[in-house]
TrEMBL record:
<feature type="domain" description="CobQ/CobB/MinD/ParA nucleotide binding">
    <location>
        <begin position="6"/>
        <end position="188"/>
    </location>
</feature>
<dbReference type="InterPro" id="IPR011698">
    <property type="entry name" value="GATase_3"/>
</dbReference>
<dbReference type="InterPro" id="IPR029062">
    <property type="entry name" value="Class_I_gatase-like"/>
</dbReference>
<feature type="site" description="Increases nucleophilicity of active site Cys">
    <location>
        <position position="418"/>
    </location>
</feature>
<keyword id="KW-0067">ATP-binding</keyword>
<keyword id="KW-0436">Ligase</keyword>
<dbReference type="InterPro" id="IPR004484">
    <property type="entry name" value="CbiA/CobB_synth"/>
</dbReference>
<protein>
    <recommendedName>
        <fullName>Cobyrinate a,c-diamide synthase</fullName>
        <ecNumber>6.3.5.11</ecNumber>
    </recommendedName>
</protein>
<dbReference type="Pfam" id="PF07685">
    <property type="entry name" value="GATase_3"/>
</dbReference>
<dbReference type="Pfam" id="PF01656">
    <property type="entry name" value="CbiA"/>
</dbReference>
<feature type="active site" description="Nucleophile">
    <location>
        <position position="323"/>
    </location>
</feature>
<keyword id="KW-0169">Cobalamin biosynthesis</keyword>
<keyword id="KW-0460">Magnesium</keyword>
<keyword id="KW-0547">Nucleotide-binding</keyword>
<feature type="domain" description="CobB/CobQ-like glutamine amidotransferase">
    <location>
        <begin position="242"/>
        <end position="424"/>
    </location>
</feature>
<dbReference type="InterPro" id="IPR002586">
    <property type="entry name" value="CobQ/CobB/MinD/ParA_Nub-bd_dom"/>
</dbReference>
<comment type="similarity">
    <text>Belongs to the CobB/CbiA family.</text>
</comment>
Length: 431
């Protein structure tokens, strides 16, 4: 038995991530090993979770993972933890297709009690029908308690406690509004930037929530057995394959399970397109997504790295390039003003951040009889300067074909799609 629960909200921007980060850090300070998870495909929140908990945060996603695999991942990483906390995504019931892929679906699949974070800034007793609706919309879901955000006075909280008492749910306290614990955001959600001291913000959040949230009661009412599931083991490396993974401030959007699969195929080495002089000796290059648009000058002026990657690609090297990695392999990448910076130049693509529009959604790539799942989330736009060969067909979560291209030039596969191969490594067999 151990405390384990899912932190959710009626809608985005209710403050669930700040609360989660503060709670993770507070528990760490109590000497507890806490395991964080994140619902959905998000890369940014997991990095903040990992910083707050001093333990890697793991994604749980019912579109990209089968139910059996998701249970196994949860069981594997929860096994040695004292407390297990899963942060939801968007609103509790928001999924790619109705509830499919939602936080609620994951909570029911893992039988996790839900702690609802409600933005009560402009509400009092009217929270009663709101919470009541969330409690009774699906009888399989258990809402164990409620924390109210943006509540500045005890008298305001008393109205909210009365509402909880009348509908039969446990009030766990409130969080006053504070600019000191606000984490800056970018177009992909919370930001990752060297200009922000995230550790200090998380420390302040931990101290802030501990004053007005009943953390002891929260842990007491969420104790339950960890779901038992066969843990999938990664086989020892089957060969001496050398795998290079870009990992620095510009390229870091990777799933832990993807990296575990790579490690089962050989020796994984990380390198930096920003700081290193050249690509390591490698049999497979993985250029993950990230924020290359924030480091255009540095990427562009690292001429030796650009040249070594271009030579590797031109000589038939195996490459997986996702989103920012694909942009880096193109001819140029333009900032929000339209100023272009030379990139590697292997793919006949020009990418720009000017007049950017959001493209997002789950994606499924059909290649012959195989299907591979992932997600697309970017604001940049790519233009082909010459025709590039395409690989397979791409569909959204509702099964409708979409125009997102998957390029294959020689042994380079590149796309805006971030793929999850933690369960199905057939993507790697395309090489």
């Amino acid at each position: 038995m151990k405390p384990q629960f899912l932190i959710a909200a009626p809608s985005s921007n209710s403050g669930k991530t700040t609360l989660t980060l503060g709670l993770l850090r507070w528990l760490h300070h109590q000497g507890l090993k806490v395991q964080p998870f994140k619902c959905g495909p998000d890369y940014i929140d997991t990095k903040h979770h990992s910083l707050a908990a001093h333990s890697p945060s793991i994604n749980l996603d019912t579109f990209m993972m089968s139910e059996g695999h998701l249970r196994s991942v949860y069981a594997k990483y929860s096994e040695g933890a004292d407390v297990v906390i899963t942060e939801g995504v968007m609103g509790l019931f928001d999924g790619a297709d109705r509830m499919k892929g939602s936080s609620a679906e994951i909570a029911m699949l893992l039988d996790l009690p839900v702690i609802l974070v409600v933005n009560a800034k402009a509400m009092a007793y009217s929270v009663a029908p709101l919470i009541y609706g969330f409690m009774h919309f699906n009888p399989q879901l258990q809402i164990a308690g409620v924390i109210f955000n943006f509540v500045n006075t005890e008298s305001h909280y008393q109205f909210l406690k009365d509402a909880c008492e009348d509908i039969g749910v446990t009030p766990l306290g409130y969080v006053p509004a504070s600019d000191d614990i606000r984490i800056p955001s970018r177009h992909l959600g919370l930001a990752i930037s060297p200009d922000n001291d995230y550790d200090a913000i998380i420390e302040r959040a931990a101290a802030h929530i501990s004053k007005t949230v009943d953390l002891a009661q929260l842990l007491a009412i969420t104790r339950k057995p960890v779901p038992q599931a066969p843990v999938q083991t990664v086989s020892p490396p089957s060969g001496i394959m050398k795998i290079s993974v870009a990992m620095d401030e510009a390229f870091n959007f990777t799933y832990a399970e993807n990296l575990a699969v790579l490690q089962s195929h050989g020796q994984v080495t990380t390198f930096s397109p920003l700081y290193d002089a050249q690509l390591p000796d490698t049999d497979l290059l993985y250029l993950a997504g990230g924020y290359p648009e924030l480091f255009l000058e540095q990427l562009s002026t690292n001429l030796t790295m650009r040249a070594s990657i271009l030579e590797y690609c031109a000589n038939g090297g195996n490459v997986i390039a996702e989103c920012g990695g694909m942009m880096y392999l193109g001819e140029t990448l333009a900032d929000s003003t339209g100023k272009e910076y030379p990139m590697v130049g292997f793919l006949s693509l020009k990418t720009t951040m000017k007049d950017a529009k959001l493209s997002l959604g789950y994606r499924e790539i059909e290649v012959g009889l195989n299907r591979f799942k992932g997600h697309e989330f970017h604001y940049s736009a790519c233009t082909e300067t010459a025709a590039l060969p395409k690989l397979g067909k791409v569909f959204n979560a509702r099964g409708m074909e979409v125009s997102t291209p998957v390029y294959r030039k020689d042994n380079v596969i590149a796309s805006y799609i971030h793929l999850y191969w933690g369960e199905n490594d057939g993507w790697l067999q395309l090489f």
